[in-house]
Amino acid sequence: MSVIIQGDQVRTITQGILVSRATATLPQSTDGSLFTVSGGRVLLLGLVGEVTTVIQTQVNNTKLKLNPTATGADQDLCAALDISADAVGELYTISGTVGDAMRSDLLIGNPLLAAPLVLSEGDIELDCAASNTGSVAWDLLYTPLDNGASVVSA
């Protein structure tokens, strides 16, 4: 008897566990939680956002960061990108190099991080410098480093 492996099982084995976050409006001149890491450390393999409602036309320097559960300051996962006037379908991702700005385009090649990041327990947040209208949906790929570690949508 043969065993059929489903597509999501193949992805989990080869590229990590997928966690999706439904579209939500942008945080208003603050940061908002996208995902929560709990139970230990994880290896962040990929992170992609897709604009689902056009972003208002005004400067909005935006970045992703980790707000650790343990004491300590927030840690930037990338440098800021101005997302002013981004259209529906615009995609956001990061390289994994903390000093690189968040990337955006209507077509992004490989969404996997060139330099995967080890994240401790805490919240992955979207930090917006302005109050803009617009909505973004997010997908994250990870693999647990510690037994029991997981990521869920915030």
Verbal overview:
The longest helix is centred in the first third of the chain and has 9 residues. With 154 residues, the chain is mainly beta. The protein has a single domain, classed as Jelly Rolls. The mean pLDDT is 93. The protein is globular, with a radius of gyration of 16 Å. The strands form 2 sheets. Strands 1, 3, 7, 8, 9 and 11 form a 6-stranded antiparallel β-sheet that branches. Strands 2, 4, 5, 6, 10 and 12 form a 6-stranded antiparallel β-sheet that branches.
Work out the count of structural domains.
1
The number of helical segments is: 1
Cα distance spanning the termini:
41 Å
Secondary-structure element order, N to C: HEEEEEEEEEEEE
The Rg value, from CA coordinates, equals 16 Å
Q: What would CATH call the architecture?
A: Sandwich
Question: Gist?
Answer:
The chain has 154 residues and is mainly beta. It is 6% helix and 49% strand. It has a single domain, classed as Sandwich (Jelly Rolls), CATH 2.60.120.
Write the layout of secondary structure elements.
Elements: H1 7-15, E1 17-25, E2 31-38, E3 42-53, E4 61-68, E5 75-76, E6 81-82, E7 91-93, E8 103-105, E9 112-119, E10 122-128, E11 135-144, E12 150-153
